[in-house]
């Protein structure tokens, strides 16, 4: 998997935001508004391995003319103002 717009570990701004979670589940994200853990969770949701998507061929009437899959081996990250991952495209 090739990830475009990736940054080396520790470089993204959100990584410098300290975790404010306390001890125990009730004092931790997502019950506590912790930006660090929220941004971490977004980053963790980025696929690290190739994956397959449905890529059926559709004619202009919307009919499937050929069923097929496509392997996605390259994605591009969309980043927010803290270099946090707000999405990704392929
Ligand atoms: Zn936290």
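Sequence proposed for the structure above (90 residues):
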């Amino acid at each position: 998997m090739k990830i475009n717009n990736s940054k080396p570990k520790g470089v993204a701004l959100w990584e410098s935001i300290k975790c404010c979670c306390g001890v125990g589940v009730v004092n931790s994200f997502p019950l506590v508004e912790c930006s660090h853990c929220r941004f971490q969770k977004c980053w963790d949701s980025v696929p690290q391995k190739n994956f397959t998507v449905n890529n059926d061929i559709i004619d202009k009437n919307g009919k499937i003319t050929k069923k097929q899959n496509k392997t996605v081996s390259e994605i591009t990250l969309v980043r927010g103002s803290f270099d946090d991952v707000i999405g990704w495209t392929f």
